[in-house]
Amino acid sequence: MNLHFIDLTIIGLYMLGIFVLGSFFGKYVKGAGDYFVAGRALPFWAIGMSIVVSDIGATDFIATAGAGYTYGVAAANFDWIGSMPAMVLAAFIFVPYYWRSGVYTIPEFLGRRYNVVVQAVHGAIWGLFLIVMLAVMLWLTADTLATTLGTDPVLPVGDYDLRLWVWLVVLITGIYTFSGGLTAVVMTDVVQMVVMFVGGGALVSLTLWEVGGWGSLQEQVLAMGPEYANHFTMLLPHDSPTPYPWTGIVFGLGLVMATGYMCGNQAIVQRTLGARSEWDAKGGMLFAGFLKSFVPLLIILPGLTAVVLAPGLENGDQAVPTMIRDYLPPGLRGLMFAALFAALMSSVDSYLNSASTIWTTDIYGRIARGVTGKELSSKQALRVGRVFTVTFILLGGLFAPALAGQKTMYNFIQTVLSMFQGPVFAILFLGIMWRRANQWGGMAGLLLGVVFTTILHNTNDLFASDDPFLFVAWWSFVFSMIVTVVVSLLTPKDPDEKVRGLIFGQVMDDGEVQRVLGERITEEG
Question: Helices 266-273 and 278-292 sit at what angle, rounded to 10 degrees?
Answer without folding.
Answer: 140
